[in-house]
Amino acid sequence: MRKYKGTSKLMLQPRSAEEVSQILKYCNSRCLAVVPQGGNTGLVGGSVPAFDEVIVNTSHMNKIISFDKVSGILVCEAGCILETLIAFLDNQGFVMPLDLGAKGSCQIGGNVSTNAGGLRLLRYGSLHGSVLGLEVVLANGTVLDMLGTLRKDNTGYDLKHLFIGSEGSLGIVTKVSILTPPKLSSVNVCFLACSDYASCLKLLLDAKRKLGEILSAFEFLDHDAMDLVLKHLEGVRNPFPSSMHNFYVLIETTGSSESYDREKLDAFLLHSMENGLISDGVVAQDITQASSCWHIREGIPEALMKEGGVYKYDLSIPVETMYDLVEEMRVRLDASAKVVAYGHLGDGNLHLNISTPQYDDNILSQIEPFVYEWTSKHKGSISAEHGLGLMKANKIHYSKSPETVQLMASIKKLLDPNGILNPYKVLPPSLFSKAEIYTE
Predict the structure, then answer these.
(1) What CATH number is associated with residue 289?
(2) Which UniProt keywords apply (predicted)?
(3) Which domain holds residue 326?
């Protein structure tokens, strides 16, 4: 994003949990701040040193430890690149329950630490459901072995959930045990055009009812997002070359019976056309066409970067009112910036992007805190899947009550009393005394 730049003088690349343990034990005894770093693909500055913290990079911890073909349980080290795991599982006849645009660089430890959402959360749920166990190194060097491979284990507090989504502020994830579903043979992708947002919502409701158990993704993008992709990404073609539309929806189905799934999809599309919910549509005829459809959706962040400066907001908002924020922001900013919207409509996750030729403090003051206030007022979350990092640590009160934030701070102080792990991230620094935050 080119928004955050640290001045760290040291990056360490441990090869085992034991080496991570030695590093943290040493740093903790001398109150040296540490920032864990995986693929460095986050969008909120969570993996960037705020000042001169020691970087602990997990990229050399990249072994697949075991895979059980009966249960589908994968155990691997935190530095495994997501795309490598996806390819490995594909060869075994399984799929990763997590898929996102940054898969070629991001690492599973970072995915777990940020509770990454991705493109198929609608089908497979969040990592809180898929991750069965973790190995984590605490600030004092203690290695916490919670690397269970059981679906059911009801013995006391399920502590692994503390570390899923804590962005390295409570401990460094070194190993992951994750439940992977079997790969199904029948995949269909269709790219549809809608005239208005209300049609997108009706289409979503119908898709959940009529496609049911085979629905695996429901993504949307607006006219401005499509415009940017066509302008900046090489090789991308407009699926509907004769005209531009106000909204686009990408639907994916995954099932085990090709004829049954296609029959369900065709009936759904025919019904949607007859009811005027779809203005136009294409169904991918092969894997190349399916990849082209996905490339449009996954390529939006890259197109935004090529356009200039971009202010990104990752929000969970009730789907009925989600696009109201986009329209209000367009009125608010008028012609001074381009407002682009896309996201995971199936699970109520809006990616709101304000694109400008370059970063401008005047425009930022028009966006913030308005976007957070609006989201809070509509009972939404200011971070749906990207985490809080450096960008939103001081904004957590828009989504969490003071009592909840205070309890989070108490947990942080218990597990990391010297405040060495990823300081200035996730929680407001004002909750901790200066003696608890070190930047030596």
Answers:
(1) 3.30.70.2190
(2) FAD, Flavoprotein, Oxidoreductase
(3) 307-395
pLDDT in tens, 144-161: 999 989 989 999 999 999
Q: What is the average pLDDT score of the chain? A: 94
Q: How many C-beta neighbours within 10 Å does residue 60 have?
A: 14
The verdict on 83 and 149 lying in the same domain is: yes
- Residue 437 φ then ψ, to 5°: -125, 120
**143 to each of 13, 17, 21, 84, 135, how far by Cα in Å?**
17, 7, 7, 26, 7
Q: What's the average model confidence in pLDDT over 62-77?
A: 97
Residue 439 pLDDT > 60: no
**What value does the mean pLDDT take over residues 104-127?**
93
Q: Look at residue 434 in the predicted model and tell me its pLDDT.
A: 55
Write out pLDDT tens, residues 269-303. 999 999 999 999 999 999 999 999 999 999 999 99
Question: In what order do the strands lie in the sheet containing 64-68?
Answer: 64-68, 73-77, 172-179, 131-137, 143-146
Task: Say which CATH number the domain at 357 has.
Answer: 3.30.70.2740
Nearest partner of 137 among 251, 30, 23, 52, judged by Cα: 23
414 plus 380 within the same structural domain = no
Q: 279 and 261 in one domain? A: yes
Q: How many domains does the chain have?
A: 3
| One domain for residues 2 and 112 | yes
Q: Is the alpha carbon torsion for 373, 42, 28, 79 positive or negative?
A: positive
Residues 14 and 138 in one domain: yes
Strands (E), 284-360: 309-316, 338-344, 349-356
CB proximity list for 387: less than 8 A, separation 6 or greater:
42, 44, 46, 114, 115, 165, 167, 426
Last residue of a domain, one of 302, 334, 351: 302
Whether residue 118 sits in one domain with residue 13: yes
- Region 383-390 average pLDDT: 93
- Enter the pTM of the model: 0.91
pLDDT at 238 over 70: yes
Same domain, 327 and 431: no
How long is the chain? 440
At residue 1, what is the residue type?
M
Model confidence at 58: pLDDT above 60 = yes
Classify residue 3 by burial, with Cβ atoms within 10 Å: 0-12, 13-18, 19+.
Answer: middle
d(CA 421, CA 428): 14
